[in-house]
Specification:
- By secondary structure, the protein is mostly helical.
- The chain has a single domain, classed as Ribosomal protein L20, C-terminal domain (c-terminal domain of poly(a) binding protein, Orthogonal Bundle), CATH 1.10.1900.
- About 75% of the residues lie in helices and about 0% in strands.
- The chain has 5 helices and no strands.
- It has helices at about 5-20, 30-70, 75-85, 90-100, 105-114.
- The relative contact order is 0.08.
């Protein structure tokens, strides 16, 4: 009896990996064994990257809030502490957006916590 190797599934699996490796340089895009390793590593980095992106954005928001608050004669840590004391529950993303796009509103907010 002839050996059954299921070439259809094997080819589909290879094709899927090579499609994910599209745009890579050299053997990484067209040699299956190389592409498989690179794609796997890339997928790992993409997972980690999604976590790092959140960290980076939070840092950017803090820098923006700090710059806007220092113009009002306060530091970032004092401002956040006073927001907590007054039970104002705005997150850093919203505060940074206010500081960038609505400076007058942000000034009023800073004045209210002083």
């Amino acid at each position: 009896m002839p050996r059954s190797v299921n070439a259809v599934a094997s080819k589909a699996r290879r094709k899927k990996v090579l499609k994910q490796a599209k745009g890579f340089y050299g053997k990484r895009k067209n040699v299956y064994t190389v592409a498989k390793n690179v794609v796997e590593k890339g997928l790992t980095y993409s997972y980690v990257g999604r976590k790092l992106k959140k960290r980076d954005y939070r840092g950017i928001w803090i820098v923006r809030i700090n710059a806007a608050v220092r113009a009002e004669g306060m530091t970032y840590s004092q401002f956040i502490h006073k927001l907590d004391e007054k039970k104002i529950g705005l997150n850093r993303k919203t505060l940074a957006d206010l500081a960038m796009n609505e400076p007058e509103t942000f000034k009023q907010l800073v004045a209210s916590v002083k």
